[in-house]
Amino acid sequence: GVLVFGKDPLNFMPGAYIQFVRFDGMTLADSVQDEKSISGNLLTQLLQIDNLLPLQIRAARVSAGGLRHEEVSDYPVAAVRELTLNALMHRVYEATSAPVRINWFADRIEIQNPGGLYGQVTPENYERVSDYRNPVIAEVMKALGYVERFGTGITRANSALKANNNPPAEFIFEATHVLVTIRRPA
Q1: For labelling, which of 66, 76, 79, 139 has a CA lying 20 to 30 Å from the CA of 186?
Q2: What is the 3-state secondary structure (H, E, C) of 83-131?
Q3: Contacts (Cβ under 8 Å, ≥6 apart) of 1
């Protein structure tokens, strides 16, 4: 309830925010181009993410044959958004001050959320099986139109990545966190 309706959830849940950092290179040691702390109740965070992500996507004009050109994005916003929403929905909120982290590098995006896999989900079945650590948050996100709760988010994200010529998202599962890496097109 605090995360959904509260005026300042950070007073009760110090990790209930998103840390966005865009680096001017490929490592955490490179200089920071931009950073944002996205906080507030769940709806406020969702609206801020919807505003921030499209601004970070870069497009280039490439020849499409003859005199035609087309815009090609470095990342499909639908995939980055979907994987960020998954991080918000499936993260651990209790007993941690760690935020969801979006680290945007020159060659990739890393989205990390506190908490490992939950319930019936394993490293072998995560693309096919859903389980909800935070069912109320998942239901609120569904009611707001941000997710469907059909267990198809990763499949849809990878489909958008493929259509944009990006490799599939890479997942690392640890007991303390999940790290998703999205790479630029080859």
Answers
A1: 66
A2: HHHHHHHHCCCCCCCCCEEEEECCCEEEEEEECCCCCCCCCCCCCCCCC
A3: none
Neighbouring CB atoms inside 10 A of 108's CB total 16
Tokens of 18: 């998103």
Name every residue whose Cβ is closer than 8 Å to that of residue 141 and which is 6 or more positions away in sequence: 42, 46, 85, 88, 89, 147
Q: What's the CA dihedral at 157, 86, 180, 61 to 10 degrees?
A: 40
Whole-angstrom CA distances from 117 to 91, 121, 171 are 9, 6, 11
Single-letter code of the amino acid located at 23: F
Asked which of 63-67, 106-110, 134-138 is least confident by mean pLDDT, the reply is 63-67
64 and 46 Cβ atoms separated by less than 8 Å? no
Which residue type occupies 37?
S
Question: How far is the C-alpha of 73 from the C-alpha of 57, rounded, in Å?
Answer: 7
Distance CA 108, CA 112 (A): 13
